[in-house]
Amino acid sequence: MFWSCRQSIFAEMKKKFSQVESAAEEPRVLCIIQDTTNSKTVNERVTLNLPASTPLKRLFEDVASKVGYVNGTFDLVWGNGDNVTDTTPIDQNSDKTILDAGFEPGKKNFLHLTDKDGEQPHIMPEESGTTDDSAQDRFIGPLPREGSVGCTNDYVSQSYSYSSVLSKSETGYVGLVNQAMTCYLNSLLQTLFMTPEFRNALYKNGKQFNLTFPKKQSHTWQQHDVQELCRVMFDALEQKWKQTEQADLINQLYQGKLKDYVRCLECGYEGWRIDTYLDIPLVIRPYGSNQAFASVEEALHAFIQPEILDGPNQYFCERCKKKCDARKGLRFLHFPYLLTLQLKRFDFDYTTMHRIKLNDRMTFPEELDMSVFIDVEDEKSPQTESCTDSGAENEGSCHSDQMSNDFSNDDGVDEGICLESNSAAERLSKAGSEKSSLLYELFSVMVHSGSAAGGHYYACIKSFSDDQWYSFNDQHVSKITQEDIKKTYGGSSGSRGYYSSAFASSTNAYMLIYRLKDPVRNAKFLEAHEYPEHIKQLVQKERELEEQEKRQREIERNTCKIKLFCMHPTKQIMMENKLEVHKDRTLKEAVEIAYKLMDLEEAVPLDCCRLVKYDEFHDYLERSYEGEEDTPMGLLLGGVKSTYMFDLLLETRRPDQIFQCYKPGEVMVKVHVVDLKTESVAPPISIRAYLNQTVSEFKQLISKATHLPAETMRVVLERCYNDLRLLNVSSKTLKAEGFFRSNKVFIESSESLDRHVAYTDSHLWKLLDRHANTIRLYVSLPEQSPGSQFRRAVYQKSSGDSGNLDDACERVKGPVGNMKSVEAILEESTEKLKSLSLQQQQEGDNGDSSKSTEASDFENIESPLNEIDSSASAENRELENQIQISDPENLQSEERSDSDVNNDRSTSSVDSDILSSSHSSDTLCNVDNAPLPLANGLDSHSITSSRRSKANQGKKETWDTAEEDSGTDSEYDESGKSRGEAQYMYFKSEPYAADEGSGEGQKWLMVHVDKRITLSAFKQHLEPFVGVPSSHFKVFRVYASNQEFESVRLNETLSSFSDDNKITIRLGRALKKGEYRVKVYQLLVNEPEPCKFLLDAVFAKGMTVRQSKEELLPQLREQCGLDLTIDRFRLRKKTWKNPGTVFLDYHIYEEDINISSNWEVFLEILDGVEKMKSMSQLAVLSRRWRPSEMKLDSFQEVVLESSSVEELKEKLSEISGIPLENIEFAKGRGTFPCDISILEIHQDLDWNPKVSTLNVWPLYICDDGAVIFYRDKTEELMELTDEQRNELMKKESSRLQKTGHRVTYSPRKEKALKIYLDGAPNKDLTQD
């Protein structure tokens, strides 16, 4: 019997052990669940690590417990892997294991938590939460990157949704959200909150206050030390609590007292001082030792262990009147009620010169007896009384045999704690009782995880209500045990060498807080009914806000948010908004909400609107909702989701129209009808078709919608940009032809002969090609036409007959009442332009004049501007088909008489006549369709390389950047004829009324133009409206930020422009081929601002420097008031603010000097004759430093014949009178003028470098403009008093800040943590 029982017991134990062993070997499955039922939780994850044998039922139970939903009210679907296309919910009633259901061990299995049957999951009531400790995940240490632990309803939210993150778990506590490196603050606040005495006192304070970090400092983004924060916060609280009941609260709770003494070992004389403390810093590892203290008790003994002062450290004894050996140490006189111990884990490694963290193991007891560390004998001594006789309670001296009062000075200041009695008997009695009752209990461990460079703080705190330990890790609060506290001791199992802490755990205790075990003083937390009235009101207000947030969250959870679009029925613009509608609202109610949201009350009746399913990306109407007006939006949209794969369109109709039914599976086609006679493209008509329809059936469908015959119909599909496919195979399906969800087709149905022409040669193809490449631009013209003087200058070089462009645009003179209409003026101007052009064609013997093109209106625009007489339209079209500008330069090269010039003065405002016309002006442009050279993208600031480097190469480098970089190629070829006469490009313009705020009197054109036109041809077409030739106005492109950039590459097309771009025209000479626009700055080496802008100039390729100087002279005189001669100034290279190479008069641009668009150059006025004569010379700027006077002299130029250091010293000696052997020099640093503080120049510069030439390290002076400081090495530095130095420092700081140079006098220091009272400092934060 016994043996059988024994065998059965062994068998049962073996079975259990095998089960445990198999469970340990069983693979685990990592499940990551994303809650997609709400926009607030879409970025949140729940992580479960389950055994592979876990049933699916258990998976759903665990998920429900984690997210706080009622099980059975949600679905789980796959979110990745092979099952990602399977949207079927996982069967939660299945008996399968998660392994059999397709979950993969060792991989991340992503699941989506979704609505069940269109209904949102039900939230689990709070009382239904489990309270079983075994079900509660305990957590201690830094949070993982994903998942949530510590409480069942916790989520890690990236958006800091406080209401969801800070929900109470069964612990009954709410954490604090980490608001960017505030974990150190959170852990301290949580510790203070869990301190009954501190919390109760704070509640009883009837005065509210704020403690705020300075906003303009970077404290928010820096992690600070929690012990430093504790000190600063206590100081701030003491300041705030002055003259209140809590004025001495910090001292009463946290302040202790110790004696700092020195005792002579020869005579027994002792000097001492009493200090107070708020915390005790304990060393982890003694200085120079490889072994750390094993426990807090051992570190406390070391703290009060005295040291012997001997040898060179001997102490001067006042009694012995000599240096003697002495004992120096600390004695604890009084311990506070709340004892704070700081474990000094941060140290400095003098080997690596870096801060390090000591992760050595240091134990600490749950109960700490401090009676062994207090000095009762010191309390028995009458020395304290003898010291108070002199009026200094906390400092004095005495002898073991005889009372002494040798210390009469009061160096130390008592910080608020005094002894309760002056009676020695009372002190003795009190000291004895205190020693017997100094038992402290641990209740807070503030833990640091990380390194000396940064890490994470959290707190382990014991509640005095239930003696349970909790982990307060930012917003996560969970229960822990005493074993978890022991894990914060730190250390490793290995030997404790000096670097052993580097391999130890980085998570360890940093601050310990103990409370004195005293039944009389130990307080309990105030109950709710004991709260002061202001606290009760605050709690009530918080509860109301919480209820309000809860209701709002419930509304948010049931609100569908989806993009809403609407084509405004009158403005014809697509509007976009977000529709927010409760899931229980019907479709009819949603239409009313959308109707008001889009502000259509005055545009269309409500019954003319409906909501349809819409794909904005493809511009596709997916389906309509006929007969579902009473269906809830939650069902129509598939539930409340964070994002939808579709949008909604608020569709409108006219009262006489009916809505079309959109069925799923249909494709939408926008049909444009093309009229070859009027060369117009009608606005689109939308029809619905099926992909399996043939082209023949599709034509019949279009015929019904457009009432055009299908037999003669040509259908062109625009699949993408410039891909126009003619659908000429009637039996092919639309799918085979490339139709998709949303399509665009052009149709033409007429009896014209164009049907029999090859498609690519047909009129239809050309019209559609033009339509596809035409863009709409808005052109702002100059506010005033150019003056007569300017116009005379423009045309003075002209020759030939008196015909000119202005004659074609002449204003009709006469009384106001007899003036012709603007239509007649435009027609007359056009006729003159036509006859002038035909004449020029004949003179130029151009054989292309017989060609005709289609250049009329490409689209019917419903506007009053187009309501013109049909005969005028016919004449305009006839003009467009005949006109061709073959030699535009002839328009500018005609010789003009004085009468013509005078006539211009009265007709210079021709563009105002044209703009006031109700006609639109259609003309043609002739451009070259051959390949054109493109810009090479050279840096606009790059200028010539060093002259000396060129000289060393032995040959000159030539860059032809006229057409590639600057883009200033001429509009005409070498024969003077217009480039490109093979293809016409469309151009149409009409007046445009700009919006208010565009400038009073500002004239605008709306231009439809083929974007393949070149900028050169585009400018030629703008000539009649600007009133000057294209070479005398500039084109600026206006970007969204209203920034303007000049377009100068005349050979480039307008392909980079898009619809509705704005262009500004400004008067001024445009650049010709080989010309560059140059900004000229004056170099003022001895002025506070050495760089001053003068003017814009134009330099040309092949021009010498002297020629450019000659052209600058009149401009400098007229625009800048500088009356100079050509030999009184020089030009030199400018790089940012640095002066560089001096350009010699014989240098040629593009040969000796590399030049680019938007080039910048310095103009320097000379004091005398130019000393720079050849490229082998070197010009440097020297400045003498006078240390005895603490000042710098002005700049002086030194011209060297070579790069010899010896020659430089000779020149410096010559201009300064300093003996050659005493010359010391240094190269300036930074941007010209190389400013430096006179307090730093004497020692900070690299004086007297050991080199023989200037073009080697460390000088590298290879070009003109280098700054050289020099001094007399025998001159002594002026000695400054502290006042003089401070005054000089202020002046230098002010001077250098004005010039944009930063001055620093000390290495960067760590900013101390600051807390301001009531949220605002008393001084300007910018001064910190």
TrEMBL record:
GO terms for molecular function: cysteine-type deubiquitinase activity. Residues 174-517 form the USP domain. It is an enzyme of class 3 (hydrolase). Its EC number is 3.4.19.12. Residues 531-558 form a coiled coil. Residues 960-973 have a biased composition (Acidic residues). Keywords: Coiled coil, Hydrolase, Protease, Thiol protease, Ubl conjugation pathway. It comes from the Eukaryota. It catalyses: Thiol-dependent hydrolysis of ester, thioester, amide, peptide and isopeptide bonds formed by the C-terminal Gly of ubiquitin (a 76-residue protein attached to proteins as an intracellular targeting signal). Residues 115-135, 379-405, 789-814, 833-922, 936-978 are annotated as: Disordered. Residues 906-922 have a biased composition (Low complexity). Residues 383-405, 881-891 have a biased composition (Polar residues). Residues 893-903 have a biased composition (Basic and acidic residues). GO terms for cellular component: cytosol; nucleus. One of its GO terms (biological process) is proteolysis. PANTHER family: UBIQUITIN CARBOXYL-TERMINAL HYDROLASE, UBIQUITIN CARBOXYL-TERMINAL HYDROLASE 47. This is Ubiquitin carboxyl-terminal hydrolase 47. It comes from Limosa lapponica baueri.
